[in-house]
Amino acid sequence: MNIGIISDTHSYLDERISHHLQDSDLILHAGDVGDVSVLDQLDALAPTKGVYGNIDSTVIRVRLPEWELLDLEGVKILIIHIAGAIGRYNEKCRALIIEHNPTVLICGHSHILKVSRDDKFNLLHINPGAAGRHGFHKVRTLLKVRAENGSLKDLQVIELGPRSAKSVD
């Protein structure tokens, strides 16, 4: 299963994002969607699941939960927008990790691309960075990965271009 992972679009989706996610079997959005049209455009590419973020309106919050637990090809994934840093998860995230024991945690909010192992909770912590044009990040990013036989494989970091302009090849 080919999975696209995106976050912090803040109402912005350009042709490069669509280009890179068009071969996805599933798209995961880790919050701060912005305008509901972003979800509609992503859904047109592939089924889209995700969570709402702190900037998302009630329109988004009706469509997406605060957190989501998925089993994708034997990989247990917890998605929440605001998780906190490895070793300093916020109370909500820590409780969800303890209760559900995911193998992967996907979050957003920080706009900082990060893929790192959390040995304390035995999980892979993934933040795809920010794909939108609002925030302090300099380069817009998303991730692609394949879930297969209980593990994630072939993780790709996609740089979409500078935050302040449309992306380039």
> What structural category arises from helix and sheet content?
alpha/beta
How many angstroms does the end-to-end distance come to?
25 Å
CA-based shape: globular
| Strand neighbour order, sheet with most strands | 3-2-1-11-12
Order of helices and strands: EHEHEHEEEEHEEEEE
How large is the radius of gyration?
Answer: 15 Å
- Contiguous low-pLDDT stretches (5 residues minimum) are none
Q: Determine the number of helices (DSSP H or I, runs of at least 4 residues).
A: 4
- CATH architecture grouping: 4-Layer Sandwich
Binned strand content? 35-45%
Q: What count of domains describes the coordinates?
A: 1
Q: Give the CATH topology.
A: Purple Acid Phosphatase, chain A, domain 2
- Main sheet attributes: strand count, strand direction, barrel closure: 5 strands, mixed
CATH level 1 name: Alpha Beta
Q: Give the averaged pLDDT, no decimals.
A: 94
The percent of residues in helical segments reads: 10-25%
CATH H level, superfamily name:
Metallo-dependent phosphatases
Number of strands: 12
Outline the secondary-structure elements.
Layout: E1 2-6, H1 15-21, E2 26-29, H2 36-45, E3 48-50, H3 58-63, E4 67-72, E5 75-80, E6 84-85, E7 88-89, H4 91-100, E8 104-106, E9 113-118, E10 123-128, E11 139-148, E12 151-162
Parallel strand pairs: 1-2, 2-3, 5-8, 8-10
Antiparallel strand pairs: 1-11, 4-5, 6-7, 9-10, 11-12
Short description:
The chain has 169 residues and is α/β, with parallel strands linked by helices. The protein has four helices and twelve strands. The strands form three sheets. Strands 3-2-1-11-12 form a five-stranded mixed β-sheet. A five-stranded mixed β-sheet has the order 4-5-8-10-9, covered by helices on one side. A two-stranded antiparallel sheet has the order 6-7.
